[in-house]
Automatic annotation (TrEMBL):
Family, per entry: Belongs to the resistance-nodulation-cell division (RND) (TC 2.A.6) family. MmpL subfamily.
Organism: Streptomyces griseoviridis
Compartments where located: Cell membrane
Protein known as: Membrane protein
Repressor in keyword set: no
Entry's Gene Ontology cellular component terms: plasma membrane
Top-level taxonomy: Bacteria, Bacillati, Actinomycetota, Actinomycetes, Kitasatosporales
Amino acid sequence: MATFLYRLGRLAFRRRRLVLPAWIAVLVAAVIGVSGFSSSTTDDFTLPGTQSQQAIDLLEKEFPQASAAGATARVVIEAPGGQKLTSPANKQEVEALVADLRKAPQVASVTDPFTAGLVSSSGNIAYAQVTYAVPQADITPAASDALHQVADKGEEASLKISLGGNAVLEEEQSNAAELIGLLVAAFVLVVTFGSLVAAGLPLVSAVVGVGIALCAITVASSFVDMASNAQTLALMLGLAVAIDYALFIVSRYRTELREGHAPEEAAGRALGTAGSAVVFAGLTVVIALAGLSVIGIAMLTTMGLAAAFAIIVAVLVALTLLPATLGFTGARVAHGRLTTRRVRAEQHGRRPTMGVRWGRFVTRHPWRMLLASVVGLGVLAIPALSLRLTLPDDSMAAPGSTQRVAYDTLSKGFGPGFSGPLTIVVDARDGDDAKTAATATSAMLKGLDDVAAVRPPVFNEAGDVALITAVPSSPPTSQETVDLVGDIREGSDAVEKDSGTQVMVTGTTALNIDVSAKLGEAMVPYLAVVVGLALVLLLLVFRSVLIPIKAAASFLLSVAATLGVLVAVFQWGWLKNVFGVDETAPIVSLLPILLIGVVFGLAMDYEVFLVSGMREAYVHGAGPTEAIVTGFRHGARVVTAAAVIMISVFAGFLLDDIALVKSIGMGLAAAVLFDAFVIRMTLVPAVMTLLGARAWALPRWLDRLLPNVDVEGEKLRRVLAERQRQTRIPAQNGQEPAAPAPLG
């Protein structure tokens, strides 16, 4: 691999006037392509094999007029202060709004608040339930505009109108998070390189790569149902890793220049060494993200594949566009005019770098540093034992948004559980009497403590399937509602035995509970797959048994600590005002799985970039402890800068108002912080110091079986050294220099 990348780096450097315009053309084509397509995203879930999905499939067949799979919207209406909606004037306005809703495009049905009993006991709050004939992803702009026009008409009549449900799309968010992340990244790059030219290259590469990826994802969303947060995750990860990968390559390029190599040769060597690590690191992230598709949830699949695509583009840009731009800057990248006197002294070896000093400190006190790292992360992981999962609903919408106002208004007028009703389906097609079974089911529901209301059963045309709506007393995301769904399913067993019917619980709330349960069950197997992959990949890279085991164990520790922080902040409410968390709630069920996949890839990034330098030194004769310090000399500064950039990019998303985006940003920022500074910079050197030479041990039989992937470019260096030796020998004998030995 290293030899191929060496040739690729030199080719891109030499053909820069072709490579750079080619990438610009791809970016322009992607931007033009976006203008010809309309993006369509969805948060709908399908979960084959669960009771809730089975019930939805039955409702689509037996109650086609109900559009069980169709999008829904709640138009929440509140009377002006001191008035009631039941007054003649206000009632007339509400009925006019309902009439307009029924005429709106794609609407299948609309419930009248006055005839359906959807007016609060106080008389000042009501809502109309709008059911569409199509799922959320197929809602047209005309249908969405019509819904908002009805809301505006109600506002003109002095009524307070708010909209909830999955048919109401989130408003576009500002780009403050991305801008802040880029500004911090620019500052860190300038400090790291001491050069505006060197600092600008990773930023340019990242912008081009992320721009192409996001445009392509937008175009893809016109053909497939894309999760609404897929682009956000792709942007978050694509921006961070693109800057990091470029940082590693540019840093190695500067090192090669300082060692006296010509710019083209330096570009080839940089890509053959740091580029190999970039390919490996990018591959691990891609595999982990693409692996999310095996869980079987479409929303998670599209998020994972979209982010994986952004990583692929970032790697391709780093391997081709970056060496091409280096061809235009030449040796100017190596001149750090903005560096301090201390940094220049470190670069010229007149004083040890901060990384060297830290490495020596850790190797002198390995037991203390190991204990401090494990205990510290272990304490942070304790809250993870209380982890509860849920899916985002209107209660997690941005404060002040129409969805959040609708949720709060409904809770005020009808109770906290009214926004998440449960649909109970009584299937008596193979039973004796649907009416008797429905009556028994209703009686069972009314006997449960956490049920606020039970609506009369509605039967299909054949009279053998009944639909009953139960309103919980607790909010949809509460543990009480989760327990209620379990109680209903347990109580349904008795009804099924007595009547020979099947009783199923469904609805958005029940479906969300089932999805969260499935994701919780999938977390351990997925974690096992990811850890197993880590063991295999690191075994190939470092040709060591103990280093992969150490890396996998430390990865699990950082994931546990990250989940603990998320639970403490978002679920328990610790420091919630500091991080702008408006209301505590269970952790979004997608997040732990995403964290495992993403953090695995990032952890392997730092493991490769740092430990490969240690292995290189050890292979060249350094002692085990000195090899650790040497690895820190070459990699600590770059890894630290890369981690700070990633943390800044991810933490910038804490400014987002959407709970899911905020929690993803905080989770990834915390994960990088723990993995880079606690695991890789502290725990790893402490453990390797204690292991000594055993850290690099590999049984001979296994050594013969494993292929040599040459991530550090060791084989490449031998080939280049031999070529250089063959070139010098004739010159020393007064002969013409021989032609360089071919690579390969």
